[in-house]
Write a structure and sequence with these properties.
The chain is mostly beta strands. The chain is 6% helix and 34% strand. The protein has a domain at 196-349. The strands form seven sheets. It has a five-stranded antiparallel beta sheet, with no helix packed on it. The chain has a five-stranded antiparallel beta sheet with strand order 17-21-20-19-18, with no helix packed on it.
């Protein structure tokens, strides 16, 4: 039985949408740059986890360069072990830099995130197969960070397993973590599933106090399976600030209705979150932390998530740890379960105050105003076969359990300014659809 769904641009309000290009990798493992009319401006036959176009200000003025994954490692474990090499392509798809064979073990094992730094180096989220102190003798998928110089040398590194006692696990949490690792040390996604890493960059906290923990070089990271967002002090490697893994009883009770709209209010239970990052200094909300809170099953022990299956995007004041803005489907006049990605996804603040959201599990990209109105919506038409929604090349099958299915999954998207691309011009936008009414 065929399943028919609308694809491409399903809604566009030219007056309220922020006009830019959007970069994403489809489930067919091809990276595309589209405009808001849905026209494909350029394509590259490589996947990125995530694909990311470089800011020319960090790239010696070069425009149109982007980073992707170039080859597989051939590791049968798949998942976070699967990537062999990463690199940069120019606008025409020529390889201009690559890294991986120089890495420990001869493969990059990059997964979930990476970033071009102001000094020209790259911050790369990697897998480190090893026995982790305190978790037994089994080799597991520990995850960490490398800072890689242009010549391929690793000039700084950090491993999550060396800092577990800084993560705030309760006694029950430690027990659940150790039991999970003992039961499945070969988990292809790792025991923490570290899924993002982003340096803070210039910010108002550091401008006010150069001695603050929010130094521009410090790195905000996310551990999906542990429900932890943390800030790494780049100079010492210590955890300088943290959200999660557990929240107060009062916050938990409030959390039973994830769509509680009053802000500011104390942060309540996140679960399976993705892409926490500090909003850049020149954007609305600058200095706050924006995070895609999936509300998918996660936690040691599992978090008591809300009674409604719905995701949310949260903007958090890092000083007070309060929610100062949020988006749920109810902010668009819809039931909470109509916006839900139990895994993958991201959010990005735009110059006009709108927010670009990737509802990754559904392959849906959309833009909302601060008040929650959807002003652009795009459903990826690019499908691929995978297991439980993940691309087959990255997810090993469990015989008799997992079945290959078609998925439109999009891991992450990026709004790209027109002047980051060769000859980038602002296309006139054509209105699509009528504004939905609650």
């Amino acid at each position: 039985m065929a399943f028919v769904r609308l694809t491409g641009v399903t809604y566009l309000d030219p007056e309220l949408a922020h006009n830019s290009y959007v970069l994403f990798t489809g489930a067919d493992a091809v990276t595309r740059l589209i405009d808001l009319n849905g026209t494909v401006v350029q394509r590259w036959p490589y996947a990125g986890v995530p694909a990311r176009m470089h800011d020319p200000a960090l790239n010696n003025g070069r425009i149109g360069d982007l980073g992707v994954q170039l080859s597989d490692s051939g590791d049968a474990r798949g998942g976070i072990y699967a990537n062999g090499t990463i690199g940069d392509l120019d606008w025409d798809g020529n390889r201009i830099w690559q890294w991986g064979t120089q890495a420990p073990g001869g493969a990059a094992r990059q997964n979930h995130d990476w970033e071009l730094l102001p000094n020209g180096n790259r911050l790369v989220l990697v897998t480190v197969p090893r026995a982790v102190p305190g978790l037994g003798d089994n080799i597991v998928g520990d995850q960490g960070l490398y800072e890689v110089a242009p010549d391929g040398e690793i000039v700084w590194e950090w491993r999550a397993g060396d800092h577990l006692d800084e993560f705030g696990f309760s006694e029950a949490g430690w027990l659940a973590l150790r039991e999970t690792v003992a039961r499945d040390p070969g988990d292809p996604w790792g025991y923490l599933e570290m899924n993002s890493a982003k340096s803070l960059g210039p910010n108002r906290w550091h401008d006010r106090d150069p001695g603050t923990i929010f130094h521009p070089d410090n790195i905000v990271v996310s551990f999906r399976k542990a429900n932890i967002v943390a800030l790494i002090d780049k100079s010492s490697g210590a955890i300088a600030w943290r959200l999660g893994p557990d929240y107060s009883a009062a916050a938990g009770a409030q959390h039973q209705r994830i769509t509680a709209h009053k802000v500011p209010r104390p942060l309540d239970q996140t679960s399976g979150q993705h892409n926490p990052h500090m909003i850049a200094a020149d954007l609305p909300g600058a200095g706050n932390i924006l995070v895609f809170d999936n509300q998918g099953g996660a936690g040691y022990p599992p978090a008591p998530i809300g009674i409604y299956a719905g995701s949310r995007v949260l903007e958090i004041d890092p000083a007070t740890k309060e929610i100062v803005w949020q988006y749920t489907a109810e902010d668009s006049g819809l039931p909470p379960w109509t916006f839900f990605s139990s895994f993958v996804g991201n959010a990005q603040r735009l110059p006009n105050g709108n927010t670009l959201i990737t509802e990754g599990m559904q392959g849906r990209l959309f833009q909302v105003t601060p008040g929650g109105d959807v002003v652009w919506e795009y459903q990826s038409p690019y499908q691929g076969y995978g297991v439980a929604g993940e691309p087959e090349v990255q997810q090993p099958r469990v015989p008799g359990v997992d079945r290959l299915t078609l998925t439109p999954l999009v891991y992450r998207s990026q709004a790209v300014p027109f002047d980051w691309t060769p000859g980038g011009t602002r296309p006139p936008l054509q209105a699509v659809g009528q504004r939905p009414k609650p």
